[in-house]
Amino acid sequence: MTCSFPASGTPPQDLLRWAMSQFGDRFAITTSFQREGMVLLDMAVRLDRRVRILTLDTGRLPEETYTMIERVRERYAISVEMVQPAGDEVEGMVMQHGPNLFYGGVPERKLCCQIRKVRPLERKLAELDAYAVGLRREQSATRESVAAVSEVGGKVKLSPLAEWSSGQVGEYLAAHEVPEHPLYAEGYPSIGCGPCTRATKAGEGERAGRWWWEDSADKECGLHFTPAGKVMRTVDVLLEQVLQGNA
Ligand code: SF4
User: Fold this and answer.
1) CA distance 100 to 116
2) Distance between CA 240 and CA 247 in Å, rounded?
3) If one looks up domain 12-213 in CATH, what number appears?
């Protein structure tokens, strides 16, 4: 990537304007229709309705997310590209491990995320030079160093709201009457796949509703030793077995 990036502190709308003019239809907003993603979508559509909007349709999204997608399509008169997993990979995984494998252990959960989210996104990103996501530094310790613009795997990744507070997000949404995902009203601070996300109780962290059955001390995938003595993450072994089963 040879373009020079905008200066740090560039406002989100200006970052989006820059990316849309620099990359055209090789730029997209990727969103799961949470608050931050909706701020970006609203800003980008105001700049140019032809902006590409991508979402991962894992096949296990809650019904409310499909309702939200319909609302967004109508409100903005735009299309949403729904990125789906490869049917043969899902079929192989479910055949080997069952439809609710994610409750069986961390490697199985990560296998499901690989097949339903990571691999489809990687395939879609091959069409793009740049994409924007709704990460904010304030959201968690692991997001404290999020850069507004960075290069990841040869793609320009924008997090235009990196420096925003949740208050700024709320103010933007209210000022522009941006639609809100219906699950926020039911106590979900973070919204993902239906079987893996729940509402949280007072005092619980934002991410407590994700994969709540996993012991946080047990979130690593574990290691597996192949017959040749090679050490592999268990999730990679499971993935290889699914892909080999499909070959
Ligand atoms: S969040 Fe749950 S259902 Fe969704 S891809 Fe990951 S493990 Fe599968």
Assistant:
1) 13
2) 10
3) 3.40.50.620
Question: Token pair 């849309």 is at which residue?
Answer: 20
Which mean pLDDT values do the consecutive 10-residue runs of the chain (247 residues) have? 79 97 97 96 97 97 97 97 97 97 93 93 93 87 81 91 94 97 93 92 79 68 54 79 81
Q: Quote the pTM value.
A: 0.88
For residues 93 and 198, give the distance between their C-alpha atoms in angstroms, rounded to a whole number. 24
Q: To 10 degrees, what angle do helices 87-97 and 234-246 make?
A: 110
Q: How far apart are CA 113 and CA 107, in angstroms?
A: 10
Quick one: pLDDT at residue 237? 82
Expressed in angstroms and rounded, the spacing between residue 82 Cα and the centre of ligand 1 is: 16
Compute the distance between CA of residue 41 and CA of residue 178 in angstroms, rounded to an integer. Answer: 9
If DSSP codes are grouped into helix, strand and coil, which group holds residue 28?
strand
Is 65 close to ligand 1, i.e. is its CB under 6 Å away? no
Residue 4: partners with Cβ closer than 8 Å, 6 or more residues away: none
Atom of ligand 1 nearest to the CA of 110: 7
